[in-house]
Specification:
The complex is a heterodimer of chains A (185) and B (590). Chain A is of the alpha+beta class and 185 residues long. Helices cover 25% and strands 37% of the residues of chain A. The N and C termini of chain A lie far apart (44 Å). The chains are: A alpha+beta (185), B alpha/beta (590). The complex binds thiamine diphosphate (TPP) and magnesium ion.
Chain lengths: 185, 590
């Protein structure tokens, strides 16, 4: 076996850790954060991300327990494993935060997003957009003589794929809700 | 004009504020009045349980509260008005957040029905202070006011301590509401883990036992955890004979006169402490946070050690340095368990290897890294601090500092035997901290000797607090190391910017003696080496505030120094000068 030739001190951890943190690749994680539904709580969470330079790829928030006064914030973020750990630790220590779940590591989860697409098309393209919508099980929620508005629910990848297909057919506007996610089972 | 007791439980918001403070055991409030807090000031006027200290600037109030809190272990309390009162408090809040100091700041706010209208002296106080408080509240209902204030105290002192702010609109202060007593329910919402995981403690004990070149590295968390934590550290060191160093914030937890003390570590720490950190095979970080002033270049930080870290804040663990064993818990509780387990297993250590390790350390100590060349005429700043230390170390003494070279020299040349005797702005490095902090300390300890070791530039940043010192006859000693330079800036410019001294001195310093006299207090100026001792004695013995203008050598540099971006074993010593220039690349780091 080839001998490991490691430069002393390449690791930030210790002599016992041979991983070079600079090699860490960014990962995408979906976090579910249960918070007290009080004024300013979203600003606190977002302020943490902007203040410490973390990424927000998507964010949704709504009250989920009216009596218990709880909201659920779902954030899709990306960062190296140590950054993800920091994000979770930083979130957890906020006073109105009750629970932080990393759905990406806590077993399987389902992720869904809703999107609206406005497509302006004529003739063949108009027909094609309808046909594709059917394949994706998108609903027509508004139509005029020159446009359709489709509603599509699905995993973010599905929304992306549909958007890609609609661009050449005349996609003008898109509105996405961001990801809502739950652990399975 | 004292008020009649009111047994109904229905009170004005302002009365609720004062009653809640009294229930929390507050004896002192540092503050400054204004339109949006007048109802609270009116209540303060009509009672005797809480002493209000009128500062001269809201930043001073917060630093004074920090000094009070750090020297007593009790939360410091501040009361200021809306708008400018609140914005002036921001630096102090940030300072307290960085150094984990428990303070409760109450701010007035424009009436609820005017919020958002750009009313006179309106500022989005909770918005502005959200990132610089541990938590903050805007209270819109008098009925929950008492509860919020109780929760604010709970959050400030529980877990990792920190500053909190409660913003109280003026109509909420006037309205009547129900007073709620402090309840145990507060724990339900915020109750951070204090008891460590037993398995991790056992793992840590094993690593401790197996170590051949160990070092303990303690920090401000030990002070915050309480006296018990310091006692446990002392026991652990005494029983294991391991060497110990500390951050700037943790000085005094292990006594400076203790046999195993290596002095402070970090950018201006001792050679032996930094070399031991670099070469150790086991590092036990207790209530410190691997700040960049401690680690230097993280890639080369202590490359051969197993690292154990105990901290009450989970986000401190693995933030800057990945550790092998991260233990979440209160320092006292964790150390107690640790000692218990270690003793139960027979208090083992590798005595022979430890002896060799101490020999290595002794060799580093011989370098005598703090030595300096004394001058025959002018006063060297290090010498001034040596003399100050010699004359005051056995006294009941508290020391605060400003920020700069003098701060580092004070940390190097003054020794602290107990925690809570040393108050300095570590994380934020706030010039202007020391003078108001010394006022807060003196208020809490009226009989003790309180000295602020200051740089002339820092001291001028909050010199308005002279008024406060005089008004309350606080005998604080302002020991100004006057190098007529922004010394620390000048040092970096010399070492990193080719000696281009861009704006690092003031051409218009006041005559400090006359300044003192204008406030009716004592001023002493000392320029001659031979007169220094006598002058310091005069300062100590004077019953009242003193400004001591200690005119020192202008161009002295503070060594040892680990330049930014360098590793511990790349320290510059006094003796290395001037060949030891720092590379340009270091200049981009702070
Ligand atoms: C509020 C603030 N502004 C600027 C700085 C940057 N700074 C750090 S030390 C220093 C010079 C301090 O001069 P002085 O108080 O005279 O202390 P000396 O270094 O000369 O002992 C400056 C400007 C700071 N730390 N705080
Ligand atoms: Mg100076």
């Amino acid at each position: 076996m080839q001998k490991l030739s490691l430069k002393k001190g390449v690791s930030r951890k210790s002599a016992y850790n041979l991983r070079d943190p600079k090699d860490d690749k960014p990962e995408r994680h979906t976090l579910a954060i249960l918070v007290d539904n009080e004024s300013g709580v979203l600003a606190r969470v977002i302020g943490l991300f902007s203040g410490r330079g973390y990424n927000i790829d998507s964010l949704t928030v709504a009250e989920v327990d009216h009596l218990g006064n709880r909201s659920r914030i779902t954030i899709v973020t990306s960062g190296t494993p140590s950054v993800i750990e920091q994000i979770k630790a930083q979130l957890s220590r906020m006073i109105p935060v009750h629970d932080v779940h990393d759905l990406t590591v806590e077993g399987e989860s389902v992720e869904r997003e809703l999107a609206l697409f406005k497509v302006f098309a004529k003739g063949e393209k108009r027909v094609e957009s309808l046909r594709l919508a059917d394949v994706f099980r998108a609903k027509v929620v508004d139509s005029t003589l020159v446009s359709f508005t489709f509603e599509l629910t699905g995993a973010p990848e599905k929304i992306d794929a549909f958007a890609d297909l609609m661009v050449p057919l005349g996609l003008r506007e898109i509105a996405r809700t961001g990801v809502a996610a739950l652990a399975r089972g | 004009m004292l008020k009649e007791p009111n047994p109904t439980g229905i009170k004005s918001g302002a009365q609720i504020v004062v009653d809640a403070l009294i229930e929390q055991g507050v004896d002192t409030v540092f503050g400054y009045p204004g339109g949006a807090v007048l109802p609270i000031y009116d209540e303060i006027f009509q009672q005797t349980k809480i002493k209000h200290v009128l500062v001269r600037h809201e930043q001073g109030a917060v630093h004074a509260a920090e000094g009070y809190a750090r020297s007593t272990g009790k939360p410091g309390v501040v009361l200021v008005t809306s708008g400018p009162g609140a914005t002036n408090a921001v630096t102090g809040l940030t300072d307290a957040l960085m150094d984990s100091i428990p303070i409760v700041v109450l701010t007035g706010q424009v009436p609820t029905f005017m919020i958002g209208n750009d009313a006179f002296q309106e500022a989005d106080t909770v918005g502005i202070t959200r990132p610089c408080t541990k938590h903050n509240w805007l209270v819109k209902d008098t009925n929950i006011l008492a509860n919020v204030i109780h929760e604010a105290f709970h959050v400030a002192i529980t877990g990792r301590p920190g500053p909190v702010l409660v913003d109280i609109p003026k109509d909420v202060q006037f309205a009547a509401g129900k007073y709620q007593k402090r309840s145990k329910d507060l724990r339900k919402r915020y109750n951070p883990q204090t008891t460590p995981n037993d398995k991790l403690i056992l793992k840590a004990v094993k690593a401790f036992e197996n170590s051949k070149k160990p070092i303990l590295y303690s920090g401000g968390g030990v002070v915050n955890s309480g006296e018990q934590a310091s006692n446990l550290i002392r026991k652990l060191v005494a029983e294991s004979n391991f060497p110990i160093t500390s951050t700037l914030m943790g000085l005094g937890c292990y006594p400076a006169s203790g046999e195993n003390w290596l002095g402070m570590l970090g950018m201006h720490g001792t050679y032996e402490a930094n070399m031991a950190m670099h070469d150790c095979d086991f590092m036990f970080c207790i209530g410190a946070r691997f700040d960049d002033r401690i680690t230097g270049k993280t890639d080369e930080f202590s490359p051969n050690s197993v690292k154990v870290h105990i901290d009450i804040d989970p986000s401190s663990i693995n933030k800057n340095i990945l550790v092998d064993i991260g233990i979440i818990g209160d320092i006292s509780v964790s150390l107690d368990k640790f000692l218990h387990v270690w003793r139960e297993r027979g208090s083992k250590s590798n005595t022979k290897e430890l002896k060799n390790w101490w020999q290595e350390i002794q060799a580093w100590k011989k370098i005598d890294c703090l030595k300096f060349k004394n001058d025959t005429k002018s006063i060297k700043p290090q010498y001034a601090l040596q003399i100050l230390e010699k004359l005051t170390k056995t006294m009941d003494r508290y020391v605060t500092t400003e920020v700069g070279q003098h701060q580092m020299w004070a940390a190097q040349f003054m020794g602290f035997e107990e925690p809570r005797r040393w108050m300095t702005s570590g994380g934020l490095g706030t010039m202007g901290y020391g003078f108001p902090a010394s006022i807060g300390v003196q208020i809490a300890h009226p009989k003790s000797l309180v000295i602020n070791v200051a740089g002339e530039a820092s001291w001028l940043m909050n010199m308005q607090e002279l008024g406060t010192a005089v008004q309350y006859n606080l005998p604080v000693k302002q020991f100004i190391i006057n190098n007529k330079r922004l010394g620390m800036v000048r040092q970096w410019q010399e070492l990193l910017h080719g000696g281009r001294y861009s704006h690092s001195w003031s051409d218009a310093l006041p005559d400090f003696v006359k300044l003192a006299e204008s406030y009716g207090i004592k001023g002493i100026k000392c320029e001659k080496l031979g007169e220094l001792e006598k002058a310091i004695i005069e300062m100590i013995e004077y019953d009242g505030p003193v400004i001591f203008d200690c005119v020192v050598e202008k161009h002295e540099n503070c060594f040892p120094m680990i330049p930014s971006g360098k590793a511990h074993n790349e320290m510059i010593l006094e003796a290395d000068q001037p060949e030891n220039k720092i590379e340009e690349s270091g200049a981009v780091l702070v």
